[in-house]
Structure formats: C-alpha cells, structure tokens
Amino acid sequence: MTGKNPLMIKAVLFDLDGTLADTAPDLSFSLNHMRESRGLPSLPLSATRPVASLGARGLLKVGFDIGPDHPDFGTLREEFLGLYEQNICRETRLFPGIPELLDGLEARGLRWGIVTNKAERLACLLIGRLDLASRASCVVGGDTTARFKPHPDPLLAASRAIREDPGSCIYVGDDLRDVEAGHAAGMKAAAVTWGYLNGGKPETWNADWLINNPRDVLKLV
After folding, report:
1. Which contacts of 32-39 are long-range, i.e. CB under 8 A and separated by 24 or more positions?
2. Burial group, residue 215, by CB count within 10 angstroms (0-12, 13-18, 19+)
3. pLDDT for 70-107, tens place per residue?
4. Which segment of 5-14, 35-44, 117-126 scores lowest on mean pLDDT?
C-alpha cells in the first residue's frame, strides 16, 4: 500500500466487479455461449477479463465489435444479461483477502457497502449468492440512481443510505471512474491493483491510496 496518510473513516464502500469479486469467468462464459450459438469460437479469458468491469458494453465490444450505437446492441445486451443472470455465480469468487478485510471492518465496528455500475437486481442476486446480503449496509447499482459512475450520484446515495457524511467514507475500486466518482462525491478514493483496470494504470489515477492487498485497507481505518 502506498499513498497519503489515512483520516478518520467511518465507512468503506466498494466497487463489486474486479474489486470485491472476480466475476470475469462468468461474464466470459455468458459471452462465449452467445458466440458459440452463432458458430463463433470461444474467446479466452485473457481477452475478456480486462473489460469485465465494463459489463455488457465491454463484453459485447470484445465479443462482437459493437457498441451502444449499433442497431443490434439492445437486443444482444438483453440476451447477454439474461444468460449472465442464469450463470451469475458459477465460478465467481471473492478475491483472496477480501473475506478477511470484511471481517476486519466489522470487527472494528465499521460499516461497508457496495456501489457498482452493475444493475441493482443483478448486484443483489450476486451478493446473495456470495452470502454477503445480510452484511452489506447498502447496495447501490448502476440503475439505482439516474446517473451512474463516474457521476457521484450513486456514491452520494450510498452515503445517505448508511447515514454517513461522504467525507468520512472511502471508496475502493479498480477503475479510473471509481476514483473520479469518489472524489466527485467528496470521498477519499483507493485504487486497487488486483482488479480488471480496463487497461489503465492505477498509479496515474490520482487516487488517495494505491492498494496492493485487500487487507491493507484496514490500515486506513
């Protein structure tokens, strides 16, 4: 862990995909199911993993080279999301060190929550499958508020839900947009190095802390 000195923190909020949980295998499985049904070869996880935190938009770009402006995007997106919902926790696991981190936060009497661009319904489904539903103080999805990250609205909604001032919260994520959203909401932002990163370099994101091991978050609180 490298970065600035810690402050008095009362809550820690986490991104989901690529930060708390390694969801890439199941996202990739769903995409490859679509490709195989169209006579296309499967893509290796190494091709899909870097864009996993971008969800359907990122996966469909890699798998079919189409974006939101393509006339077939909406239909393919719904197909992808339907397949993913059916296979949402085949191989998804918490990253090593995350269970100990969450235990440590709770042992300190600190609340933690999840703010993700994944649809709230899918986020809640996955969190339930990972046995975290009763422990997370809030779950804010990409459709919970009118605007999603990097806009601060989801993080501000989370701080209201847990009744903590944004300035007493840390947001932990694996993408530049997570750092941008955290700072825009008035929170401290920590960038993790074990996530998907979307081809970025966390050391260039102006995060307050760069986290190499999940348990290092405990040193901030």
Report:
1. 32/63, 33/83, 33/87, 34/63, 34/64, 34/76, 34/79, 34/80, 34/83, 35/63, 35/64
2. middle
3. 999 999 999 999 999 999 999 999 999 999 999 999 99
4. 5-14
Q: What is the strand order of the sheet 11-14 is part of?
A: 2-3, 209-211, 188-192, 169-173, 11-14, 111-115, 139-140
**Total residues found in the chain within this entry:** 221
Q: Residues near 73 by Cβ (< 8 Å), separated by ≥ 6?
A: 60, 66, 67
State the pTM of this model. Answer: 0.94
Residue 198 has a pLDDT of 87
Q: What is the rounded CA–CA span in Å between residue 18 and residue 44? A: 17
- Mark residue 197 as left, alpha or beta (left: phi above 0; alpha: psi -120 to 50; beta: remaining): left
Task: Tell me the C-alpha distance between 138 and 76, whole Å.
Answer: 30
Catalytically active residues are 15, 17
Q: How many CA atoms lie within 13 A of 66 on its CB side?
A: 13
2, 209 Cβ separation under 8 angstroms: yes
Q: Who wins on pLDDT, 8 or 164? A: 164
Q: Is 210 helix (H, G, I), strand (E, B) or coil?
A: strand
CA dihedral 162, 163, 167, 169 (to 10 degrees): -20
- Residue 5's pLDDT band, with cuts at 50, 70 and 90, is very low
